[in-house]
Structure formats: C-alpha cells, structure tokens
Specification:
Layout lengths: L1 H21 L8 H22 L9 H9 L3 E16 L2 E12 L5 E5 L16 E6 L7 E3 L30 E2 L5 E2 L10 H20 L3 H12 L13 H13 L3 E2 L1 E4 L4 E6 L7 E7 L2 E7 L11 E2 L8 H12 L7 E6 L17 E9 L2 E8 L6 E2 L1
Antiparallel strand pairs: 1-2, 1-4, 2-3, 4-5, 6-7, 8-13, 9-10, 9-14, 10-11, 11-12, 14-15, 15-16, 16-17
Helix pairs in contact: 1-2, 1-4
Length: 389
C-alpha cells in the first residue's frame, strides 16, 4: 500500500510540473509540498519496513515468540556476515545479518535477519557469534533473536554447520506472521513475481495523482499541447483562434454576463470590463490567461454610462486574427506587438446629449508598434470598414 501512496505522490509532483508550466501563476501550488512530503515519508517508511522484515520495527509480537516456544520452534543461529544498514529508529540501529540456523526440529538453513537493537548490544552480533532464535513459522525463515544463553544446555551441545553445508539462502517472507505460524502476505507485495499486475496499479496511482492536479487546469494544458504541436511555443497566442473565442466564452461564463464595456486582447491575456448587472454602470475587471479566468474586483475607472456596454456575441472575434495580420503587413510593424481594444466609439454628434461619450458603434481598435514608430487601425464589430487612423 505504501508503494501506491508513493506513486500517487509522484503523480502529484508530475501534475504540479505540468500546470506550473501550462497553467496560471500559482496553479496547483498545494501539490508540490504535499507530493514531496508524502513521497519522502512513504519512501522512508517503506524502506525501513522492508529492512525490518517480518518482525516489523518494534520486533516480533511476544505472542509469536510464546507460540514458537510452545511448539518447540527454537534453534541456534550463527552470524556469518554483519552489515550496518545505516538506518536508525529512535537511536536504535537496524542491523542486516547473514546467519546460518540450526533448528531443533528441522534441517539447517541460511537466511538474513534484520534486528533492531540497542546501540550497546550491537557488538554482540559480530561474525561468529551464536544466538538462540525463535522460528516464527514452522517451515519458513522468519525468526527472532532471544535473550537465552547459547552456552547453556541444550544449546551448548549443538554445532551449527558451516554456511556452505546449509544450502542456498532462504529469504524471509514479507508480511505479518500470525500466532499459528502462517504469514499474512501484504495486499501488494513489492518482491517476487506479480510485477505484471502490480505495475498497472502503480501507474494508475501515478495517473490519479497527476489528474487530481491537472484536471482543474485542463483547458490550459490542452491549449499548451495544441500550441506546441502547432509550433507556436508553450503558451498559445490569444489573438489566434480558437483560443480567442474560447477566452471570450470563458469570461462570459465565469462573470455570468453577456455584455462588456471594453475588451482588450493581447497575445497572452484577455482583459474585460464587465458590469455586475447588465444595463447598470457598476463594473468589475476580469482577466483570462492560460486557460483560467481571474476576477480582479471593481474596475479602477468605472464606465460613465451603461450605454457603453455591448454584447460579446455581437463581435466577430474570429475576424481579429486576419485583421491583425493585415495591419502588420500594411504597417510593416511586428505582429507580436499587436494590441486590440474592443469598445464603443465616441459619439461625435455635437447636438446629442451623449456627445463625447463612448456610446457609438462597436469598434475594433488595433495598435502595433516598435522602437521607431507605431500604427493604429480600426474596423467595425464584424471586421469590416478596415482603415488606418
């Protein structure tokens, strides 16, 4: 189970990496500390658990030792090789020993043991040392070191054979030993066979972690993939279709308003001044970038009249890209500098009560510039009447 958690945490980190590149600033930020912490903890706990073997970090349950004594599942073990694992739990070193065991009731065998001992007692396990052990299972290599004196009968009369005469090493089985001597295997064992069915589970856990982070930012990720495939870089140019129309629709959906007083389109951001209630002046600022909509609160400069508003679906947004390309050709200025504002034109009827206010026809205002000059173009809401100002 720890491995599933570990791979899910890796998925969180991978998902964070994706949305950090493709999504808006701060996207999925929670996933980085969460994924890193969980991955480290599960990896460390899993490593210690594997090193500790069947006995666990606290050693075998006294009930298991009592059951082994009652069944006379005892033996004499000789330490052949001593390794310091480098792992400590509460200041107690976890040893890794290669031992040869002579049971009282069955043939000798070789195995590994990983006792967690006091630092003061670690020297007792030097190569060649003898120890009384309890065999936790009738036919396996799961064992526990006892405090019995190996120099006393009946152990003093027993002679542990040379390691070469005890056959091939037998690995302790992973899992929890029951009092009856059987082993409850873990649901997902990390050793032995079965990789063919464990690997898909780990992959599924990884994918679940990644999707949990990516899903809220899926429009940004999809747009980045499309932009990369088109050779336009990691982030799409919002002056291009279909990204522009997607952004306008996202702003309308999130704000709940079909109208705006002004929309400004740049290559990486669409900004809009949208009324709280259509037909009323009070307005908020909204932004769309990297597939996400941000609500920036009340507009710094509020519209003077509600008549400045226009319906978003009254604008031929798909015409913006070819108009910008045409403006760049005619002006000789870089298309990358394009800046488009959509709003109502100023009313020039001097006899009108609304003279000088932006209550005229909806216009597209296109601006391009470089270090040596600039150019301005206008068009109507449907992309016609294109002129240079």
């Amino acid at each position: 189970m720890l491995r599933i958690i570990f791979f899910a945490a890796l998925g969180l980190l991978a998902g964070f990496g994706v949305v950090a590149l493709a999504g808006p600033r701060g996207a999925g930020i929670w996933a980085f500390p969460t994924g890193l912490t969980v991955a480290l903890l599960s990896g460390i706990i899993g490593g210690i658990s594997r090193s500790a073997g069947s006995g666990g970090l606290g050693g075998p349950d006294p009930e298991l030792i009592d059951a082994a004594r009652r069944a006379d599942r005892l033996g004499l073990a000789r330490v052949d090789v001593f390794h310091a694992s480098g792992i400590e739990v509460n200041g107690r070193p976890l040893l890794k020993l290669e031992v040869t065991v002579l049971p009282r009731s069955r043939a000798p065998f070789r195995t590994t043991a990983r006792p967690l001992v006091s630092p003061l007692l670690a020297g007792r396990y030097e190569p060649g040392s003898l120890h009384v052990v309890a065999l936790l299972t009738p036919d396996g290599a799961e064992l526990a070191f006892l405090d019995d004196d190996p120099s006393q009968p009946p152990w003093a009369r027993m002679r542990v054979p040379e390691a070469s005469g005890a056959g091939a090493p037998v690995a302790p089985r992973r899992g929890k030993v029951r009092p009856d001597g059987t082993v409850r295997r873990p649901l997902l064992s990390g050793s032995g066979g079965g990789l063919w069915w464990r690997a898909p589970l780990y992959l599924l856990a990884f994918a679940a972690g990644a999707v949990a982070v990516i899903y809220p930012y899926r429009p940004a990720v999809v747009q980045s993939v499309q932009s990369l495939r088109a050779g336009d870089g990691l982030h799409p140019n919002l002056l291009h279709e279909p990204y522009l129309s997607q952004g306008i629709q996202a702003l309308a959906d999130r704000s709940g308003s079909p109208v705006a007083s002004e929309v400004v389109v740049r290559d990486e951001r669409i900004s809009a001044e949208i009324p709280l209630v259509p037909g009323q002046k009070a307005s908020d600022d909204w932004d769309y970038a990297r597939g996400s909509v941000e609500h920036d609160g009340a507009s710094t400069i509020q519209p003077e009249r509600a008549q400045e508003q226009f319906r978003l679906d009254a604008v031929a947004w798909e015409k913006l890209e070819p108009l910008v390309e045409r403006a760049a050709r005619e002006s000789g200025l870089p298309i990358e500098s394009a800046f488009v504002s959509v709003s109502r034109d100023v009313n020039t009827d001097i006899g009108s009560e609304s003279f000088g206010h932006q209550v005229g026809a909806v216009k597209l205002f296109i601006s391009l510039s470089n270090a040596y000059g600039n150019a301005y173009f206008t068009a109507d809401a449907k992309g016609g009447s294109f002129t240079q100002r």
